[in-house]
Design brief:
Blueprint lengths: L8 H18 L4 H9 L4 H14 L8 H11 L3 H15 L6 H7 L1 H17 L3 H15 L2 E2 L4 E2 L4 E2 L6 E2 L4 E2 L4 E2 L4 E3 L11 E2 L4 E2 L4 E3 L3 E2 L4 E2 L4 E2 L7 E4 L4 E4 L6 H4 L5
Helix pairs in contact: 1-2, 3-4, 3-7, 4-7, 5-6, 5-7, 7-8
Length: 263
């Protein structure tokens, strides 16, 4: 399976509204939330800002201007909307349990935690580090995931289930990566410099795997569930076990798209 071509914000927004209207006709109990989070807004950018702000605001009443701050990041970041759309589409494409984009947008904590990270990352990138860490702390409470705002995460990322995911300060995640629950991209010490992993394009990280230190998981590779990786993983291979050993794999497959859990 290959990723969908880029969807522009207007087309995506129209798709969300039409799907939302269809759901509202079938399930009246959801009318209010569908209106509050989708149909009452003027476009995807506004709905996204509201979604992120509401989730974060539920965790603290101390920050009264959450929506204003989120909107500042959404409008100030050059790629926030395009990255968000690619994340959203990836969520629906790679999870067979996700029936439509509305479900992914409203209910998938992996998607929502990524968007909260992108807001915090914006403030980190302009030097407002304490604010970024505060937003990170709210996102941890809201989504049970801990993504440092300094981490570098590209677009088209799918985080399935999400609970327990930890991504450290100097980690890099390239585009079109899939991550399952309880994955750790962690460090191995207190030294400076790059202390966390680099995950290349097309990688799938299985549930509960731990990748520790300044190491690289090569393009289109897979880390099996429960594995602990302490050394580089070459391209087009599978890492499995504790500590992980390397197994050759079919080079025609992109694990992030296929989402096959078996070795």
């Amino acid at each position: 399976m290959q990723p969908t071509v880029t969807i522009d914000p207007l087309s995506l927004w129209q798709s969300l509204l039409s799907t939302s209207a269809a759901i509202a006709k079938e399930e009246h109990a959801l009318n209010e939330i569908l209106k509050e989070r989708l149909s009452c807004h003027s476009g995807y950018h506004e709905a996204l800002g509201n979604l992120i702000a509401q989730d974060l605001s539920e965790c603290s009443s101390a920050l009264k201007n959450t929506l204003e701050l989120v909107n500042e990041a959404v409008s100030g970041s050059s790629n926030m909307i395009s990255s968000s759309i690619r994340d959203l589409v990836a969520t629906q494409e790679r999870d067979p349990a996700c029936k439509n984009l509305v479900e992914a947008f409203l209910f998938y904590r992996g998607f929502k935690a990524l968007q909260a990270y992108r807001v915090a990352h914006y403030f980190w990138s302009i030097g407002r580090h304490t604010l970024a860490r505060y937003l990170q702390s709210l996102s941890i409470q809201a989504h049970s995931m801990d993504i440092h705002p300094a981490a570098r995460i590209a677009e088209g990322i799918f985080i399935d289930h999400g609970t327990g995911v930890v991504i450290g300060e100097t980690a890099t995640v390239e585009k079109n990566v899939s991550i399952l629950h309880n994955v750790t991209l962690g460090g191995t010490g207190k030294s400076g410099g790059v202390r966390h992993p680099t995950i290349r394009e097309g990688v799938m990280l299985g549930a509960g795997c731990k990748i520790l230190g300044n190491i690289t998981v090569g393009k289109n590779s897979k880390v099996a569930a429960g594995s602990i990786v302490l050394q580089d993983v070459p391209e087009n291979t599978t890492a499995v076990g504790i500590p992980a050993r390397i197994i050759a794999r079919d080079q025609g497959e992109v694990p992030a798209y296929e989402m096959k859990q078996e070795v």
